[in-house]
Each structure stands twice: as C-alpha cells, then as structure tokens.
Design a protein that fits this description.
This protein is an all-alpha fold and 354 residues long. Helices cover 79% and strands 0% of the residues. It has one domain: Amino acid/polyamine transporter I. The two termini are 24 Å apart.
C-alpha cells in the first residue's frame, strides 16, 4: 500500500502532464533521460526505506512529528518548503485540469477547476480510510492506462523511438537531473506516512520503502517512451500528455485517458492536502482540541483557490521550469540529507527512540 500511495501522490505533480518529464529528463536527451530515471529510482528507494522505518520506530505518522525527528527545533524549515511546494503543485494541477477541460472537452477552464475542487473536498472530508483506498486502487488503474499508452506509441512510432534512443549522450547532467527530480518529489514522503501505521516490523518497512522506487518510476518510464515518439517537437507543448492523446486518433480512447488524467491530478492534490490536514489535526490534538471534519475541506479549497490564481498569473510551463527547480535543492538539503544521516542513525539505534 505505501508504494501505491506514493505513486499516486507523485504522479500528478511529478509526471501526469508530461511537462515535468520534459523539463527534468527529455531535455537531457532521450537516452540520458532514461539514465536519469534510474538515478531517481535508486534515490527514492533508499530514502523511503529509511523514512518508513524511522516513522515506524518513532511513531511519527504526520510530517510535523516526522520532521521533528530529523530537524529538531528547525522542523519549521520543512514546513515552509512544503507550503511552497503544495501551492506550486496545486497550481500545476489546477492549470492542467483547466487546460484539459478547455482543449479536450471544449468546456470553460473554470469547469475543470470547479470539478477538481469538488472531488478534492469530498475525499479530504472523509479522512484516512477513504484516501488510502482511493489512492491505492487508482494506482493500479494507472498501471494499465500508462502501459496501454506506452504500448500504443511503441506499436505506431517504433522507428522514431528507436532512432531517438540511438542519439549519443554528450554530457553527464543526467546524474544531476535524476537527483533534482528525486529531490522535489521526495517532499511527497510525509503524504504517505499516514499509512505507515500498518507496518509492524523493520523488514516490512524496508521492503515497502524499496518498492516505492520501481513502483513509482515505472509508469513515468512508460509515459517517457511515449514522449520520445514525438521528440523534439513535443518539448514545446505545455501539456504533452494531451498532445499525445490528440495523436491517438480514437476519440473514445482519448476520452478515456483524458478522464483518467483528470482523476489522477485530483488524487495527487488530495494526497498532498491530506498530509497538511493530518499535520493540522495532530497540532489540534496536542492542544487538547479536535479538528472539525469540515475544516479539512475548507482549508483544502482555500489553498486550491490561491493556487489557481497563481497558475493563471504565471503559466504552467514557467511554474514547472522555475518553481520546481528552485525548491528541489531546498528539499535535498532540508529533507533528504537529514533522513540519510540523522534518520539513518536513529534507525540503527532505534530502540532508544521508541
């Protein structure tokens, strides 16, 4: 379950639109991008394995408690980074949903944004149980959908895919590219912590963490193959996924994928907002209060509205190119590095911290 939940959270802000894969991988060159994905897979698996075991040992199932374990009194640094990334990802999701409804369904962009708000409000209202089931089951559906899309592109565009993959690798930026992509996506780890309470042993935690890398990157690799089919012209598309769907030729198949894309974006938004709700709920509990259920929806919708406003002012291409890049190094320094040093140390001497 943790691996599937991680995939569901990562996919919307990480590669559902395709623009993120273009920015971090395809821009390096088709073959170099695949190598960068391997770097991302390794980093995800290692960091998540340590994170899950640290969360289990210390019983830190919300990101405020978890960050207190690795950052001490400086836990608020992650808080600030998470707020910034949350607004950024919700901006990208809102812009993508608006573009999807406008370009694919010939409806006003606000119709897509309003539908997104409705789906998110319902899911976050009902809390952990519904979010767990929704994210896990939908992750399985995504495997079938992205597998079909990748297979279709390989069958119809095998020659351009093979030709593009033959291009030489002329630099070593793929290592940095893989680290950068892994860095900002690892901000989603606290969004998975609520389901770590199901893990009972170190073996379960480590296996669950190691599975996250391949489980989450495989759908990205399938979509990446589809992107290579239309390289280099697709690098200028604001939402490459929609561009690929327009080339399929079958209205019914394209409609199915477009609906799936919308649900995927909504699920990612739900996962990230749910993590924030859990953080606030924990703070309320510590203060001797209970967070009302309706506040989950109210707070989530307020953030979404602000994010949509930001997206309209900046644009999805600039948001991904500049916003993600700026936050990546912050998360590498404030999350990945502490997890793999302080967190790893606490895991090995975990008996003192239970």
């Amino acid at each position: 379950m943790p691996a599937l939940v991680f995939e569901s959270i990562v996919i919307g802000g990480g590669y559902a639109t395709g623009r993120e894969l273009v920015e971090f991988f395809l821009g390096l060159g088709p073959r170099a991008g695949l190598l960068a994905m391997c770097v991302t897979l390794i980093v995800w698996s290692m960091v998540l394995a340590v994170s899950f075991e640290l969360a289990r040992v210390t019983q830190s199932f919300d990101y405020r408690s978890f960050c207190g374990q690795i950052l001490g009194r400086f836990w608020f640094i992650y808080d600030l980074l998470y707020y910034a990334l949350l607004v950024l990802v919700m901006s990208v999701i809102g812009a993508a949903c608006g573009s999807l409804f406008r370009d694919s369904f010939q409806l006003p962009a606000m119709a897509g944004i309003a539908t997104l708000m409705g789906v998110v409000a319902v899911l976050v209202y009902f809390g952990n149980s519904l979010v767990e089931r929704a994210l896990s089951y939908w992750a399985i559906v995504l495997y079938a959908l992205y597998g079909s899309l990748g297979l279709w592109c390989l069958l119809h565009y095998a020659h351009p895919v093979w030709s593009n993959l033959q291009k030489p690798i002329d630099n070593s930026r793929w290592v940095t590219g893989g680290l950068r992509y892994a860095g900002y996506n690892l901000a989603a780890v606290p969004g998975v912590l609520f389901c770590i309470r199901h893990l009972a042993t170190r073996r379960e935690s480590v296996i669950a963490g190691l599975l996250c890398g391949p489980v989450a990157i495989f759908p990205a690799a399938l979509l990446y193959i589809a992107l290579i089919s239309f390289y280099p012209s697709i690098t200028d598309e604001p939402v490459p996924s929609i561009y690929i769907l327009s080339r399929i030729g079958s209205r019914d198949v394209a409609l199915l994928f477009q609906i799936a894309l919308f649900v995927t974006l909504a699920k990612t938004g739900t996962g990230l907002l749910h993590a924030l709700n859990e953080r606030v709920a924990t703070a309320c509990t510590r203060a001797g209060k209970t967070m009302p259920s309706y506040m989950r929806s109210v707070m989530s919708l307020a953030i979404l509205l602000f994010s949509v406003f930001l997206a309209n002012r900046v644009g999805i291409i600039d948001l991904i190119a500049h916003g993600y890049g700026s936050l990546t190094w912050g998360f590498l320094l404030a999350f990945v590095l502490p997890v793999m040093t302080i967190g790893l140390w606490k895991v090995f001497v975990g008996a003192r911290f239970t």
